[in-house]
Amino acid sequence: MYVTDDLAELLLGEAKLQQYLKENPIKLGASPHGTKPRLVEVRKHLVAALDRGNLKPEYMQEANLLLAKLNYIEGEYRDALSIYSKAALDDLQLVGIPVYRLSMIAEAYATKGLCLEKVSSLSPANSRHKDEEQEIITCYEKSGDIALLYLQEVEKVILAFVYESTCGIWK
């Protein structure tokens, strides 16, 4: 297999996952447990891209983040958390990366926070520790901070485009 085949698998998996979410938005408070037939195909694409190991590290991370998101959608919260741990979410670089990846990482932190909430809600309320609550809050804070960084970077791109467009008129 070639790297381009693995990248194609990753992109197909991502596109099909996003299309599924567009057509089937997650309802707040819904319990989505179970595999949906259309998501089986998404999983096949992502696992195929990951299993061969030909992707560059940044694309491997993206595939893992998408796989964790898929697990969340299917209600497999512990599996999603395991993948986030494997993907070393806290160690992902935020400087000098493509803008779309900032959005993906912000979403990953929000999803991780949701997973932590779901997992901790399964245990008795009095057994929830302050550390767990702080980890959930930290995930949401990081998600918000990275989302803000994403918006700032998008604004820079838009302003650069507008500047280039208007300067081109006057030349």
Short account of what is shown:
This protein has 171 residues and is mainly alpha-helical.
Give a topology summary.
Blueprint: H1 3-23, H2 37-52, H3 57-73, H4 77-86, H5 99-121, H6 130-170
InterPro entries: Endocytosis_PI4K-reg_protein, TTC7_N
Protein name: TTC7B protein
Organism: Polypterus senegalus
Question: How does this structure look, described?
Answer:
The chain has 171 residues and is mostly helical. The protein has one domain (3-170): Serine Threonine Protein Phosphatase 5, Tetratricopeptide repeat (Alpha Horseshoe). It has six helices and no strands. The mean pLDDT is 89.
Any descriptors?
single chain; 171 residues; mainly alpha; Serine Threonine Protein Phosphatase 5, Tetratricopeptide repeat; globular
CATH top-level class? Mainly Alpha
N-to-C series of helices and strands: HHHHHH
Strand content: under 5%
Distance between the termini: 49 Å
* Main sheet record: none
Give the structural class.
Answer: mainly alpha
What is CATH's topology name? Serine Threonine Protein Phosphatase 5, Tetratricopeptide repeat
